[in-house]
Amino acid sequence: MIDEKDMAKEDFDKALSDLTEKLIATPLGAELGLDEKQLEASVSMAERALERGDAERAVRTYAVLILLQTDCVAYQLGTARAAMAAHLAEVALMAASAVIALRPTDPNGFYWSGMACMHMGEFALAIEDFTQCIDL
């Protein structure tokens, strides 16, 4: 059985520091005066909101982070997890689709896509996604 929390945390830990440095080095990051601690604090705020059961706040926080860096897999996965907790399967599907596009060999994108499809009643698509997740 896939443990949703451990799976996403592993990706956050792995990708966040590299991508944070990348974002800070962008013109937008420089223009906004962003630093690594601010971005990490935002991720922490989103995760705390999710743990408190305030999934909608977590979705909004991750959405802002995605606006700053659309190609951050950790932000997309955080959005997918938070959106599913907020019963926003369509939002979760969009975030999971971004993960699949950005990192097609990462099973997490297929897992969250499958979860979203299942909650939307698209069972055949969910089975395809879960099969791909297992195959990776």
| Alpha-beta content class | mainly alpha
How would you sum up the major sheet? none
Low-pLDDT runs of 5+ residues are 1-7
Question: Count the helices. How many?
Answer: 8
Q: How many beta-strand segments?
A: 0
Distance between the termini: 15 Å
Return the string of H and E elements: HHHHHHHH
Explained architecture:
The protein has eight helices and no strands. It is mainly alpha-helical. It is globular. The relative contact order is 0.12. The N terminus is likely disordered.
Task: List its traits.
mainly alpha, 82% helix, 136 residues, single chain
What is the strand and helix layout of this fold?
Elements: H1 4-24, H2 27-32, H3 36-52, H4 55-68, H5 73-85, H6 89-102, H7 107-119, H8 123-135
TL;DR?
This protein is mainly alpha-helical. Helices cover 82% and strands 0% of the residues.
